[in-house]
Known about the structure:
Layout: H1 4-18, H2 20-42, H3 48-74, H4 88-96, H5 100-111, E1 118-119, E2 127-128, E3 133-134, E4 140-142, E5 147-149, E6 154-156, E7 161-163, H6 168-197, H7 206-237, H8 241-245, E8 249-250, E9 253-254, H9 263-271, H10 314-319, H11 330-337, H12 344-355
Antiparallel strand pairs: 1-8, 2-3, 4-5, 6-7, 8-9
Helix pairs in contact: 2-7, 3-6, 6-7
Amino acid sequence: MAPSGPRSIKRGCQRVLYWIPVLFIALIVAWSYYAFVLQLCIESIEDTGEKVVYLLAYHVIFIMFVWAYWQTIFTKPLNPLKEFQLSHSDKELLEREDRGESQQEILRRIAKDLPIYTRTNSGAIRFCERCQLLKPDRCHHCSVCDKCILKMDHHCPWVNNCVGFSNYKFFMLFLAYSLLYCLFITATDLQYFIKFWTKDLPDTQAKFHILFLFFSASMFSVSLASLFVYHCWLVCKNRSTLEAVRAPVFRHGTDKNGFSLGLSKNFRQVFGDEVKYWPIPIFSSLGDGCSFPTCLVNLDPEQPSSPTGSNSGSKSAAECRQFPSKPLRESQSRLLSSTPSWSESECAADKDKKGATNPVLTIENEA
Length: 367
């Protein structure tokens, strides 16, 4: 019991330190608001029409930026459902078995009725010893949060949160609106930045705010632009940051495009079907985060197959939080029911390639 005190104090200190990057961003944004609204628009701009237009446009962008940032920070990452967790009896059975083959059979039996199609590099069922659960596809264990996160992209220190299935849309909007925020400030501040060097600005403290506002906004624009373009590429390819570094492994082997459904479907999987919700930080992503449509899914001989071309039975399966033989929600079934982005020949080739491999399953914990 004695060590629990120091450990709890250490965890508390770590939680406080994790908020320092967020506090830094908050202070920068607060100063930029003061510098742009008060020092630039109210104190330096003399034309009333220009001042009103700048203030209106600025506050619209500012509200959307803060809203998206708030949602990214405070949206709780989703964890795997209880169906993926080992029961008490399964835990005891797994602990009693010393032989790897017996443990493999236990995990194989549990995973047979679950929507699990990815494997470890060695071909094993992805099992988290820390959380004592079978990892759903695209799920990874975060060492900072000490939890398994559904469709984990990365742990971002600037939001002090894991970016995953529940808040990836918010993260994308945060990048988009923060980039737009910086570009807008840079563009509107440019003429007054030039006046600073030509000494056409009044000799007040506003000129120094205008100077540093331009430098900070332009520098942040460069870094945000590169990050935003990279994540746009990930969305178009239907990959997470972790999957871009290490491609997902299926039974037939590694496939970096295993979850890609085509540009339009990949985009809608993150932002949803309703266009009106795309620019708003409201959750509209498709699916449940535990299973994802892929042309490779029915090629797994250990998983029972079911037709994906009809939507008649998908709604009832989506309404109950259970996993049938083909556990795709209605939104996921719609992605598969339309014209696929892959060719039948590619799927057949993948099937032939997979049929030649039958990896031995072992327990492997991926941190």
